[in-house]
Amino acid sequence: xxxxxxxxxxxxxxxxxxxxxxxxxxxxxxxxxxxxxxxxxxxxxxxxxxxxxxxxxxxxxxxxxxxxxxxxxxxxxxxxxxxxxxxxxxxxxxxxxxxxxxxxxxxxxxxxxxxxxxxxxxxxxxxxxxxxxxxxxxxxxxxxxxxxxxxxxxxxxxxxxxxxxxxxxxxxxxxxxxxxxxxxxxxxxxxxxxxxxxxxxxxxxxxxxxxxxxxxxxxxxxxxxxxxxxxxxxxxxxxxxxxxxxxxxxxxxxxxxxxxxxxxxxxxxxxxxxxxxxxxxxxxxxxxxxxxxxxxxxxxxxxxxxxxxxxxxxxxxxxxxxxx
Length: 324
Ligand code: ASP
What we know:
Layout: H1 3-24, E1 31-35, H2 42-58, E2 62-66, H3 73-80, E3 88-93, H4 94-99, E4 115-131, H5 139-148, E5 154-157, H6 163-175, E6 180-183, H7 187-195, E7 201-205, H8 206-215, E8 218-223, E9 249-257, H9 262-277, H10 279-287, H11 300-319
Parallel strand pairs: 1-2, 1-3, 5-6
Antiparallel strand pairs: 3-9, 4-7, 4-8, 4-9
Helix pairs in contact: 2-9
The structure holds aspartic acid.
The site of aspartic acid (ASP) has 14 residues, from helix 2, helix 6 and helix 7.
Protein backbone atom coordinates (compact mmCIF):
# COMPACT_ATOMS: atom_id res chain seq x y z
CA UNK A 1 0.00 0.00 0.00
CA UNK A 2 1.47 3.38 -1.02
CA UNK A 3 2.66 5.82 1.63
CA UNK A 4 0.03 8.37 0.55
CA UNK A 5 -2.76 5.84 0.85
CA UNK A 6 -1.57 4.84 4.33
CA UNK A 7 -1.57 8.53 5.38
CA UNK A 8 -5.06 9.07 3.97
CA UNK A 9 -6.44 6.00 5.72
CA UNK A 10 -4.79 6.97 9.01
CA UNK A 11 -6.18 10.51 8.66
CA UNK A 12 -9.70 9.33 7.94
CA UNK A 13 -9.53 6.87 10.84
CA UNK A 14 -8.43 9.73 13.12
CA UNK A 15 -11.24 11.97 11.87
CA UNK A 16 -13.77 9.18 12.35
CA UNK A 17 -12.43 8.70 15.81
CA UNK A 18 -12.76 12.39 16.67
CA UNK A 19 -16.21 12.62 15.09
CA UNK A 20 -17.24 9.47 16.86
CA UNK A 21 -15.96 10.69 20.21
CA UNK A 22 -17.62 14.06 19.75
CA UNK A 23 -20.90 12.47 18.69
CA UNK A 24 -20.89 10.04 21.60
CA UNK A 25 -19.82 12.51 24.26
CA UNK A 26 -22.59 15.14 24.15
CA UNK A 27 -22.30 17.24 26.17
CA UNK A 28 -18.53 17.54 26.23
CA UNK A 29 -18.47 21.25 27.23
CA UNK A 30 -20.69 23.69 29.19
CA UNK A 31 -24.15 24.54 27.83
CA UNK A 32 -25.40 28.14 27.65
CA UNK A 33 -29.00 28.79 28.63
CA UNK A 34 -30.09 32.21 27.39
CA UNK A 35 -32.54 33.96 29.72
CA UNK A 36 -34.17 36.73 27.67
CA UNK A 37 -34.72 39.03 30.66
CA UNK A 38 -32.62 40.67 33.37
CA UNK A 39 -31.40 38.69 36.36
CA UNK A 40 -33.79 38.35 39.29
CA UNK A 41 -37.01 38.09 37.31
CA UNK A 42 -39.22 34.97 37.22
CA UNK A 43 -37.65 33.54 34.07
CA UNK A 44 -34.18 33.96 35.55
CA UNK A 45 -35.25 32.46 38.90
CA UNK A 46 -36.70 29.37 37.19
CA UNK A 47 -33.77 29.03 34.79
CA UNK A 48 -31.23 29.03 37.61
CA UNK A 49 -33.14 26.47 39.71
CA UNK A 50 -33.85 24.12 36.81
CA UNK A 51 -30.48 24.72 35.12
CA UNK A 52 -28.58 23.80 38.28
CA UNK A 53 -30.23 20.39 38.44
CA UNK A 54 -29.86 19.84 34.69
CA UNK A 55 -26.10 20.42 35.11
CA UNK A 56 -25.93 17.47 37.48
CA UNK A 57 -27.61 15.08 35.03
CA UNK A 58 -25.73 16.36 31.98
CA UNK A 59 -22.35 16.38 33.71
CA UNK A 60 -21.64 19.82 32.30
CA UNK A 61 -22.43 23.27 33.71
CA UNK A 62 -25.53 25.00 32.39
CA UNK A 63 -24.35 28.61 32.24
CA UNK A 64 -27.10 31.25 32.46
CA UNK A 65 -26.64 34.19 30.09
CA UNK A 66 -29.09 37.09 30.49
CA UNK A 67 -29.81 38.73 27.13
CA UNK A 68 -32.63 41.24 27.74
CA UNK A 69 -34.62 43.55 25.50
CA UNK A 70 -37.84 43.93 23.50
CA UNK A 71 -40.00 41.90 25.86
CA UNK A 72 -37.63 38.93 25.66
CA UNK A 73 -37.58 38.71 21.87
CA UNK A 74 -33.98 39.99 21.62
CA UNK A 75 -32.62 37.08 23.62
CA UNK A 76 -34.82 34.50 21.92
CA UNK A 77 -33.82 35.81 18.49
CA UNK A 78 -30.17 35.43 19.51
CA UNK A 79 -30.80 31.91 20.79
CA UNK A 80 -32.78 30.89 17.70
CA UNK A 81 -29.77 31.80 15.54
CA UNK A 82 -27.21 29.92 17.66
CA UNK A 83 -25.43 26.88 16.21
CA UNK A 84 -27.90 23.94 16.35
CA UNK A 85 -25.46 21.76 18.31
CA UNK A 86 -27.24 21.52 21.66
CA UNK A 87 -24.79 23.84 23.40
CA UNK A 88 -27.11 26.87 23.35
CA UNK A 89 -30.59 26.52 24.81
CA UNK A 90 -33.05 29.10 26.16
CA UNK A 91 -35.75 29.66 28.75
CA UNK A 92 -38.70 31.01 26.77
CA UNK A 93 -42.16 31.78 28.10
CA UNK A 94 -45.76 32.73 27.44
CA UNK A 95 -44.61 36.11 26.12
CA UNK A 96 -41.68 35.15 23.90
CA UNK A 97 -43.27 32.00 22.46
CA UNK A 98 -47.00 32.76 22.96
CA UNK A 99 -47.79 36.42 22.59
CA UNK A 100 -44.83 37.90 20.69
CA UNK A 101 -46.14 37.24 17.14
CA UNK A 102 -49.18 39.36 18.06
CA UNK A 103 -47.05 42.36 18.95
CA UNK A 104 -44.02 42.11 16.67
CA UNK A 105 -45.16 41.90 13.01
CA UNK A 106 -41.54 41.42 11.91
CA UNK A 107 -40.61 38.97 14.67
CA UNK A 108 -37.35 37.27 13.62
CA UNK A 109 -38.53 33.80 14.61
CA UNK A 110 -41.63 31.60 14.40
CA UNK A 111 -42.39 30.03 17.80
CA UNK A 112 -43.98 26.93 16.31
CA UNK A 113 -41.29 26.02 13.76
CA UNK A 114 -37.97 27.65 14.61
CA UNK A 115 -37.22 25.73 17.81
CA UNK A 116 -36.73 22.30 19.27
CA UNK A 117 -39.19 22.16 22.20
CA UNK A 118 -37.45 20.57 25.20
CA UNK A 119 -40.12 20.94 27.87
CA UNK A 120 -42.14 23.03 30.31
CA UNK A 121 -40.24 24.07 33.45
CA UNK A 122 -42.94 25.75 35.56
CA UNK A 123 -46.34 27.42 35.42
CA UNK A 124 -46.44 30.81 37.11
CA UNK A 125 -49.70 32.29 38.42
CA UNK A 126 -49.98 36.06 38.09
CA UNK A 127 -50.14 38.27 41.19
CA UNK A 128 -51.26 41.92 41.16
CA UNK A 129 -48.65 43.66 43.32
CA UNK A 130 -48.35 47.29 44.44
CA UNK A 131 -45.78 49.35 46.29
CA UNK A 132 -46.42 48.88 50.01
CA UNK A 133 -47.33 52.54 50.70
CA UNK A 134 -49.93 52.87 47.93
CA UNK A 135 -52.95 54.04 50.00
CA UNK A 136 -55.09 50.96 49.26
CA UNK A 137 -55.57 47.81 51.30
CA UNK A 138 -57.33 45.56 48.78
CA UNK A 139 -58.20 45.21 45.09
CA UNK A 140 -61.45 47.12 45.41
CA UNK A 141 -59.73 50.14 46.92
CA UNK A 142 -56.99 49.81 44.29
CA UNK A 143 -59.56 50.01 41.49
CA UNK A 144 -61.09 53.16 43.00
CA UNK A 145 -57.65 54.69 43.56
CA UNK A 146 -56.46 53.85 40.04
CA UNK A 147 -59.53 55.46 38.45
CA UNK A 148 -59.23 58.60 40.58
CA UNK A 149 -55.46 58.91 39.95
CA UNK A 150 -55.35 57.75 36.33
CA UNK A 151 -53.20 60.74 35.35
CA UNK A 152 -50.44 59.86 37.80
CA UNK A 153 -50.55 56.12 38.47
CA UNK A 154 -47.84 54.10 36.72
CA UNK A 155 -47.39 50.40 36.01
CA UNK A 156 -44.15 48.48 35.53
CA UNK A 157 -43.65 45.78 32.90
CA UNK A 158 -40.76 43.93 31.23
CA UNK A 159 -41.25 45.22 27.71
CA UNK A 160 -43.84 44.87 24.97
CA UNK A 161 -45.05 41.29 24.80
CA UNK A 162 -43.68 40.29 28.18
CA UNK A 163 -45.96 38.51 30.60
CA UNK A 164 -46.17 41.52 32.90
CA UNK A 165 -47.14 43.63 29.88
CA UNK A 166 -49.80 41.43 28.30
CA UNK A 167 -51.46 40.35 31.55
CA UNK A 168 -51.74 43.94 32.78
CA UNK A 169 -53.13 44.93 29.36
CA UNK A 170 -56.00 42.56 30.19
CA UNK A 171 -56.29 43.87 33.76
CA UNK A 172 -56.21 47.54 32.81
CA UNK A 173 -58.83 46.95 30.13
CA UNK A 174 -61.11 45.19 32.64
CA UNK A 175 -60.64 48.04 35.14
CA UNK A 176 -60.97 50.66 32.38
CA UNK A 177 -57.78 52.37 33.56
CA UNK A 178 -54.94 53.70 31.48
CA UNK A 179 -51.77 53.96 33.63
CA UNK A 180 -48.42 55.28 32.52
CA UNK A 181 -46.40 52.19 31.47
CA UNK A 182 -42.82 51.99 32.79
CA UNK A 183 -40.82 49.37 30.83
CA UNK A 184 -37.87 47.50 32.34
CA UNK A 185 -35.38 44.89 31.10
CA UNK A 186 -37.16 42.41 33.34
CA UNK A 187 -39.45 42.33 36.35
CA UNK A 188 -36.44 41.72 38.54
CA UNK A 189 -35.35 45.38 38.22
CA UNK A 190 -39.02 46.44 38.18
CA UNK A 191 -39.57 44.75 41.54
CA UNK A 192 -36.65 46.70 43.00
CA UNK A 193 -38.38 49.93 42.00
CA UNK A 194 -41.70 48.66 43.36
CA UNK A 195 -40.04 47.93 46.70
CA UNK A 196 -38.45 51.37 46.78
CA UNK A 197 -41.77 52.98 45.81
CA UNK A 198 -40.62 54.37 42.46
CA UNK A 199 -43.42 52.59 40.58
CA UNK A 200 -47.00 51.89 41.67
CA UNK A 201 -48.01 48.39 40.53
CA UNK A 202 -47.46 45.47 38.21
CA UNK A 203 -48.82 42.10 37.17
CA UNK A 204 -45.98 39.65 37.79
CA UNK A 205 -45.33 35.95 37.95
CA UNK A 206 -45.49 34.67 41.51
CA UNK A 207 -42.03 33.05 41.69
CA UNK A 208 -40.08 36.31 41.85
CA UNK A 209 -42.51 38.38 43.95
CA UNK A 210 -43.43 35.70 46.49
CA UNK A 211 -40.63 36.61 48.88
CA UNK A 212 -41.33 40.36 48.82
CA UNK A 213 -45.08 39.84 49.22
CA UNK A 214 -44.61 37.40 52.11
CA UNK A 215 -42.05 39.74 53.69
CA UNK A 216 -44.16 42.87 53.29
CA UNK A 217 -41.81 44.59 50.83
CA UNK A 218 -44.69 44.95 48.39
CA UNK A 219 -48.42 44.34 48.68
CA UNK A 220 -50.02 41.35 46.95
CA UNK A 221 -53.60 42.40 46.16
CA UNK A 222 -54.80 39.22 44.46
CA UNK A 223 -53.66 36.12 42.60
CA UNK A 224 -55.29 35.43 39.24
CA UNK A 225 -56.07 31.75 39.88
CA UNK A 226 -59.18 29.99 41.15
CA UNK A 227 -57.42 28.83 44.33
CA UNK A 228 -55.00 30.64 46.62
CA UNK A 229 -51.32 29.70 46.38
CA UNK A 230 -49.95 27.77 49.38
CA UNK A 231 -46.86 29.98 49.03
CA UNK A 232 -49.01 33.11 49.62
CA UNK A 233 -51.95 31.91 51.73
CA UNK A 234 -52.97 35.44 52.72
CA UNK A 235 -53.30 36.74 49.17
CA UNK A 236 -56.92 36.38 48.01
CA UNK A 237 -57.84 35.11 44.58
CA UNK A 238 -59.17 37.61 42.06
CA UNK A 239 -62.49 35.78 42.42
CA UNK A 240 -62.58 36.48 46.18
CA UNK A 241 -61.47 40.05 45.50
CA UNK A 242 -64.38 40.68 43.13
CA UNK A 243 -62.59 40.41 39.76
CA UNK A 244 -63.38 36.83 38.79
CA UNK A 245 -62.79 37.47 35.09
CA UNK A 246 -59.09 38.14 35.64
CA UNK A 247 -57.81 34.56 35.55
CA UNK A 248 -54.34 34.15 34.03
CA UNK A 249 -51.19 32.11 34.62
CA UNK A 250 -47.97 32.21 32.65
CA UNK A 251 -45.40 29.53 31.97
CA UNK A 252 -41.66 29.21 31.36
CA UNK A 253 -40.19 26.46 29.18
CA UNK A 254 -36.88 25.24 27.76
CA UNK A 255 -36.29 25.39 24.00
CA UNK A 256 -33.29 24.76 21.77
CA UNK A 257 -32.69 26.02 18.22
CA UNK A 258 -34.36 23.83 15.60
CA UNK A 259 -32.58 20.79 14.12
CA UNK A 260 -30.21 20.05 17.02
CA UNK A 261 -28.84 16.47 17.04
CA UNK A 262 -31.41 13.95 18.27
CA UNK A 263 -29.01 12.76 20.97
CA UNK A 264 -28.71 16.28 22.37
CA UNK A 265 -32.49 16.77 22.31
CA UNK A 266 -33.01 13.48 24.16
CA UNK A 267 -30.38 14.23 26.80
CA UNK A 268 -31.70 17.77 27.35
CA UNK A 269 -35.27 16.51 27.67
CA UNK A 270 -34.26 13.78 30.11
CA UNK A 271 -32.25 16.28 32.18
CA UNK A 272 -35.23 18.65 32.32
CA UNK A 273 -37.66 15.91 33.35
CA UNK A 274 -35.22 14.75 36.05
CA UNK A 275 -35.00 18.36 37.29
CA UNK A 276 -38.75 19.02 37.56
CA UNK A 277 -39.44 15.60 39.09
CA UNK A 278 -36.57 15.87 41.59
CA UNK A 279 -38.28 16.33 44.99
CA UNK A 280 -35.96 19.09 46.23
CA UNK A 281 -36.09 21.06 42.98
CA UNK A 282 -39.87 20.66 42.74
CA UNK A 283 -40.20 21.81 46.35
CA UNK A 284 -38.06 24.88 45.68
CA UNK A 285 -40.16 25.91 42.68
CA UNK A 286 -43.45 25.20 44.51
CA UNK A 287 -42.20 27.10 47.55
CA UNK A 288 -42.03 30.15 45.31
CA UNK A 289 -45.55 29.49 44.00
CA UNK A 290 -44.50 27.74 40.80
CA UNK A 291 -46.74 25.01 39.36
CA UNK A 292 -44.39 22.16 38.45
CA UNK A 293 -45.29 19.75 35.63
CA UNK A 294 -44.99 15.97 35.88
CA UNK A 295 -42.91 14.04 33.35
CA UNK A 296 -45.73 13.99 30.78
CA UNK A 297 -46.39 17.69 31.27
CA UNK A 298 -42.70 18.41 30.72
CA UNK A 299 -42.52 16.51 27.41
CA UNK A 300 -41.54 18.13 24.11
CA UNK A 301 -44.89 17.12 22.63
CA UNK A 302 -46.79 18.86 25.43
CA UNK A 303 -44.71 22.02 24.92
CA UNK A 304 -45.27 22.02 21.16
CA UNK A 305 -49.03 21.79 21.79
CA UNK A 306 -48.84 24.59 24.38
CA UNK A 307 -47.05 26.95 21.99
CA UNK A 308 -49.71 26.33 19.34
CA UNK A 309 -52.64 26.92 21.70
CA UNK A 310 -50.99 30.00 23.21
CA UNK A 311 -50.34 31.55 19.79
CA UNK A 312 -54.00 30.88 18.94
CA UNK A 313 -55.07 32.54 22.20
CA UNK A 314 -52.83 35.59 22.45
CA UNK A 315 -52.05 36.67 18.88
CA UNK A 316 -55.61 37.64 17.82
CA UNK A 317 -56.34 39.08 21.28
CA UNK A 318 -53.30 41.37 21.19
CA UNK A 319 -53.53 42.30 17.52
CA UNK A 320 -57.04 43.62 18.19
CA UNK A 321 -55.99 45.59 21.29
CA UNK A 322 -52.48 46.93 21.25
CA UNK A 323 -51.40 49.37 18.54
CA UNK A 324 -48.48 47.78 16.67
N1 ASP B 1 -40.46 36.82 32.57
C1 ASP B 1 -39.97 38.19 32.65
C2 ASP B 1 -38.75 38.28 33.56
O1 ASP B 1 -38.27 37.27 33.98
C3 ASP B 1 -41.03 39.10 33.12
C4 ASP B 1 -42.20 39.18 32.18
O2 ASP B 1 -42.27 38.43 31.19
O3 ASP B 1 -43.07 40.02 32.47
O4 ASP B 1 -38.32 39.36 33.85
